[in-house]
Amino acid sequence: MSAVFLPALTALTGLATHPRGLVDPVVPVVPAGAPEIDIDWSALGPVVMVLGAAVASTLIEAAASRQKDKDQRLAVQPAYLRVIQAAVALVSVAAAALMALQLAVKVHGEDGSAVLTANGAVIVDPLTIYIQLAVAVCALLGLFVIADRTVQGDDAFAPQASAVPGSDYENKARRRGMTQTDVYPLVLFATGGMMLFPAAGDLITMFVALEVLSLPLYLLAGMARHRRLLSQEASLKYFLLGAFGSAFFLFGGAWVYGATGSLKLLEIGAAVSGATPLDPILLVGLVLILVGLFFKVGAVPFHSWTPDVYQGSPTPITGFMAACTKIAAFGVLLRVLYAVVPGLTWDLEPVLWTVSVLTMVVGTVIGLVQKDVKRMLAYSAIAHAGFILTGVTSMSADGLSGSLFYLFTYGVATIGGFGVIALVREVDSDGHLRGEATGLDQWRGLGKRSPVLAGTFAIFLLSFAGIPLTSGFVAKFAVFGAAFASGASPLAVVGLACSAAAAFFYARVIVAMFFEEAPDATGQLAESGGIGIGVRTLGLTQIAIGVSLAFTLVLGIVPGWFLSFTEGLSRLLS
Amino acid sequence: MTVSAYLILASVLFTIGTVTVMVRRNSIIVFMGVELMLNAANLAFLAFARMWGNVDGQLAAFFVMVVAAAEVVVGLAIIVSLFRTRRTVSVDDENLLRH
Predict the structure, then answer these.
(1) What is the pLDDT of residues A476-488, one digit of tens each?
(2) A207 touching B, CB under 8 A?
(3) What is the pTM assigned to this prediction?
(4) What string of DSSP letters covers A179-231?
(5) CATH (domain of B75)
(6) How much is the ipTM here?
(7) pLDDT tens digit sequence for A173-201
(8) Is B9 among the domain residues?
(9) Whether A229 and B41 lie within 8 Å, measured CB to CB
């Protein structure tokens, strides 16, 4: 095209007659056989579904007519908007989950070779499909919690995230029943990014997917309805440290490109296996990429954002982010370690072992002294990242299969656990409902006030602790077994010790809920706001908690079918 | 000039950015540190693209610029909303979230 366009342009602008007109013509060299971009839409189905719905949802948000309030400068959205947005989000994520399930069944039945599409920018192989399925299921459950609201009509999000907390404007917005429906497109974009992240076939796609999943989460973290200062602080910390981690990832990508001359993962992998064992540029690049991924999964020493962000974010968002980001980021970690650099494991092993041990120990030890339930689960999430890393580090088919099993079961239980926290609210002495009751003191005696909720939470905690008959036990057994079998027994021993220690702080919550008396609402709890009690809602959170509970128990009691599924997938990969 | 000169410059810029993020308290300056790190990565991409004689690195630099612009939008929105609440952009003042 430029061959026609350029002469015409030069004639029009008079460049041809100018003395220095065409001294150095800038004609881009287009190779004769420029590759046709060939896109396999069926393999991309789940990602396209979610991202397409995200764009549609943004357009709906923009097109919805808002009633202008002249003196108060409020633009109140129509009541149907939140129903439409929630429906679009739920239906599209459910459809994406079904598409991923269909792809998984297809791959399981066939030889399971990877589909490269969009000129190799996207790799759809069993690992991709499994991670997409897990992300879609967890995002669907998370969306149920996000879309829920109490019978009084409060959801978990600020009426106007841009309003200054405590201002007149915010109070008016709250009284007019405004809601921040932009939550749904943001969640959809994040989910789409999470599903594209493990499918990325080159470093550019990977980086863009990383940002598409991160940027909406930074905003969502700052949107809590109650305790907005904490929420905004969480948002800022998440943003600054998340961007810091992305920069490491990117700089590492640049060095890997420098060492191998390509951005495509498969070509990098081929160059790595043919390279001399210790190319320092390559090794530096890979370690920096791993640092970027460790930031995302919250591994020590790159975990400092985790407790603050988990505690400050709106609880439904904490659950969604904790489950789905971890699954997606571990998916990429598995892809990088298993598909790109299997030849370099010997060089990377010290890094992986150190991070894995530190993550387990720091998460457990600091978790022991926490007095806030959300913060405690954040340290528990750090410890769990360490447990999953043991499976990842063992670099065997068993380790891969165990890690995949662990990711899904942990993700589902996390959504359920944070769903319960979202339902336990503080009640002050006048009986008014306030924000979430996250202090451990406020949970004392919850077993008497809300027995079903407390019992459910106890089961999730037992699963996190790895007690038999819950999915957490099977998952821990799978990763530690793989670590023992592959000669990483020191890691497995540290992991077992940490699990035993971590069981203590889970048990502490259970004891507080069932075996301690409710505190005196006027005395001890005057400053923290009142005792916690289960709140009545539309029932969506209860659905999510029920499904999570079912997964946790079923995969704990009869895990065989699911384990053989993940084993089948990891066999297809190796 | 050889490629290594550009790579040394990129590494120096990246280090300055990293140190800025870790020691400065003003969140806008911290954010500028992050942007400096991204641009150091861009410089490295371009230098390597020149070395290998392909356009992959230049392409990456374009994407990084676009993503960095999106990041500025989100980041400044967060910083501004925090400033309107607290009248400060320091990352250390009024640290509510701690152990």
Answers:
(1) 999 999 999 988 8
(2) yes
(3) 0.91
(4) --TTHHHHHHHHHHHHHHGGGB-BHHHHHHHHHHHHHHHHHHHT-BSSSHHHH
(5) 1.10.287.3510
(6) 0.95
(7) 888 888 888 999 999 999 999 999 999 99
(8) yes
(9) no
